[in-house]
Design a protein that fits this description.
The chain is α/β, with parallel strands linked by helices and 337 residues long. It is built from ten helices and twelve strands. It has an eight-stranded mixed sheet with strand order 1-8-7-6-5-2-3-4, with helices on both faces. The longest helix has 22 residues. The N and C termini lie far apart (58 Å).
């Protein structure tokens, strides 16, 4: 089912903006944001079509697309520009078989938050080429001051946007499996095929937990603002701690995040010649220091690793110091590989 109407009303009311009004008929519920992404990719693509995905990017996009016979093409994000999209590269990948662009803002794994002008640049590419966008906005509002989260659909009246979100990140409730798709389609481009497809796909599963559906309105309306402020403060302070320590470690190059829950850290593998890649580096790190970082090979972006910022501050400081100790032990830029 697409979800209880009262629940969809509550989501529409919470996520509507003056520039992008939603009603219950524009909301489809899903089993988590990953379930929402699955439904969008399934509705838009067929075997032999292609979708454009961010690199680095959340690995499930590729997994879902490939499982349906949809080809994937990766557009580059630029670490030296705070992981902005290489817009020229993005547009160069589009052809007659391109059915969607997947855009993740704020980003997992990068922690980037795109500003208005950059989002408009991306939308202009989509509009010129008549390609809809699947906007993964599960980290909506998870931004560090003075950044602002701007919902993509508020910036266009021409490009159809399927905005995917959920409770998991903002409300810190992983496992509740409660997500949604908000359909922004001003000119009814998606009316005859995509909307019915999403509704049909929603009937293939039991949908999100009915108890949580009943609680959504209260969750939105009664959660104290201090809860969100405290969560963001912890993650922002952890980002500052990690960036400060990693910036002083030879052979590492952290990119300061602007939001979400993550930081990407570059590794100059030439400074650590006993490791062939980021996977070996992070395997040795967890073995020697009991610090687990995800190798960015998982995100199609080798020679980086990702850290999570949502841990308690004392554990973050300890983990960073252990990484520092590990790097001091293995740093050897003059060795012949």
């Amino acid at each position: 089912m697409i979800g209880y109407e009262k629940t969809r009303d509550a989501i529409a009311a919470n996520l509507s903006r003056p520039e992008a009004i939603l009603t219950a008929k524009d909301v489809v519920l899903a089993s988590g944001c990953s379930g929402a992404l699955d439904m969008c990719i399934s509705a838009l693509g067929n075997p032999g079509d292609n979708m454009l995905l961010p690199r680095p990017g959340f690995s499930i996009y590729k997994t879902l697309a490939n499982s349906l016979g949809i080809d994937v093409r990766f557009y580059d994000l630029l670490p030296d520009k705070d992981w902005e999209v290489d817009v020229a590269h993005l547009e160069s990948l589009i052809d007659d078989n391109t059915v969607a662009i997947v855009l993740n803002n704020p980003s997992n794994p990068c922690g980037s938050v795109y500003g208005r002008e950059h989002l408009i640049e991306i939308l202009e590419v989509a509009e010129r080429n008549k390609v809809p966008i699947i906007a993964d906005e599960v980290y909506a509002d998870c931004v560090f001051p003075p950044q602002e989260f701007i919902p993509l659909a508020t910036l266009t009246t021409e490009v159809p946007v399927l905005a995917c979100g959920g409770l998991t990140k903002k409300f810190l409730v992983p496992g509740w499996r409660f997500g949604w798709i908000c359909i922004h389609d001003r000119h009814n481009v998606l009316q005859h095929e995509v909307r019915p497809a999403l509704n049909s796909l929603a009937t293939r599963i039991l949908g999100p937990n009915t108890l949580i559906q009943g609680a959504v309105e209260a969750i939105f309306n009664t959660t104290p603002p201090a809860f969100f402020t405290n969560c963001l403060n912890v993650m922002h302070e952890n980002a500052i701690i990690a960036f400060s320590i990693f910036s002083k470690i030879s052979g590492l190059k952290p990119v300061m995040p602007k939001g979400a829950m993550y930081m990407m850290v570059g590794i100059d593998m030439g400074c650590y010649p006993e490791f062939s890649d980021d996977v070996q580096f992070t395997e040795a790190l967890v073995s020697e220091q009991s610090v687990f970082c995800l190798p960015a090979k998982c995100f199609e972006y080798p020679n980086y690793f990702r850290i999570v910022l949502s841990v308690p501050q004392d554990k973050m400081a300890t983990a960073c110091e252990r990484i520092h100790e590990f790097c001091l032990k293995h740093y050897n830029p003059k060795a012949v590989r």
